[in-house]
Amino acid sequence: MKRADFEHWVRSELDAVESALESWVPADSPAGLGVAMRYGVLDGGKRVRPLLVLAACEAVNGNREAAMRAACAVELIHAYSLIHDDMPCMDNDVLRRGKPTVHVQFGEAQAMLAGDAMQALAFEVLTPDGDAVPAALQARLCSLLARSAGHAGMAGGQAIDLASIGKPLDEHTLRDMHHRKTGALLQASVLMGAATGIPTAGQWDALSAYGDALGLAFQVVDDILDVTQASETLGKTAGKDQDNNKPTYVTVLGLGAARRHAAELRDKAQAALARSGLANAAWLSLLADKVVDRDN
């Protein structure tokens, strides 16, 4: 598979996701709420999670309508989490995706409401009327997304993160935190895409292992970029974790070891993908490389 083909696929799918989000995130919500929601999710971000959903759907020849809805739903959950994480009561950041954070632009109360509304909208998007997405698939997608975003996943990981400021963490505890905070939603993206088709039990397990390794690799690379790239490249405040005395893979392992660990996790993800035996998994393979080789 040529790199140019992959880049064309990425551009095409990003345009499709942006168009769907444009249509599903309302501009006319009361008192400017829709404006804040659209500011928080449109025109920015790498959209790795939606791409994973769509690539996994293609790998299993799944339901495209369900996959697009899942891709947008997972991005809405991710964007809502960023809005809340950036607030003064959490990470207190002022820059996200190269522009002022939502609470800086619209105030803390509106940012909180925008995040709340986007979380609810994610599940509304997953449960359309009609027969395009069967009810059983709607329920499966909602279950996967809710579990990855809640106390056992993203929210639980953020709670550990906030409780760990200034405290030494061993690698096992750090891994658990990031498996929940970052990895769970990335893994769920892969599995939501897979759920739109009919994978075998072995293929499901292999894709789960792929998503698990890739989710952790994403966070390791994030920690590396936080200390090696400028804010202009990242689109967010560089060095924030170090300034906040937060434990990261770089502080626990060291920069060189963190880079090696990211490469090991990519290899683990690729090996799991190979085990799946899926004939149409090229985009998933190339996405694993894209996640680890990125510079923002």
From TrEMBL:
GO terms for molecular function: metal ion binding; prenyltransferase activity. PROSITE patterns: POLYPRENYL_SYNTHASE_1 (PS00723), POLYPRENYL_SYNTHASE_2 (PS00444). The keyword Transferase applies. Coiled coil: none annotated. GO terms for cellular component: cytoplasm. Belongs to the FPP/GGPP synthase family. This is Polyprenyl synthetase family protein. It comes from Piscinibacter terrae.
